[in-house]
Amino acid sequence: MLPTLNTGVPRSVTGNFISGALTAGVLAGSISCYANKSGKKISLKKGIKIAVQSGTATASAIAATNYIGQGRYLNAAFSLAVGVSSLYLIEKLPLLKEDK
Questions:
Q1: Contacts for 31-35 with beta carbons within 8 Å, 24 or more apart?
Q2: Contacts with 87 (C-beta within 8 Å, 6 or more apart), sequence order
Q3: Per the domain annotation, does 41 fall within a domain?
């Protein structure tokens, strides 16, 4: 049996999704003031995509940390796999594709 790690009090996955999304949204909004390498400003769609991906990454990482604290390592690995898969799907969503 693997030892459990003390990861502190379990945290809210939903709350951390919202925190991650809001943080990334603010950062993406501030970055949009600056031009990227091609000289174009970052679009609203790109900012939304960054916010949703950041919230998803934060939520899956917090869920995995909660499972590790409970000694449920398989569930932690599954949470991370779902998070990575979700990031890929968000990247490929036609709704969030940038206009060229």
A1: none
A2: 53, 56, 57
A3: yes
pLDDT (tens digit per residue) in 28-38: 766 665 555 55
DSSP result, 81-95 = HHHHHHHHHHHH-GG
Alpha helices in 32-95 (DSSP H): 44-69, 73-92
Domain contains 98: no
Quote the domain boundaries for residue 26.
Answer: 13-93
> Is 7 inside a domain boundary?
no
**What distance in Å separates the CA atoms of residue 52 and residue 68, rounded to the nearest whole number?**
24
pTM: 0.73
State how far Cα 28 lies from the chain centre. Answer: 14
What is the domain count for the chain?
Answer: 1
Distance of CA 37 to the CA centre of its chain: 24
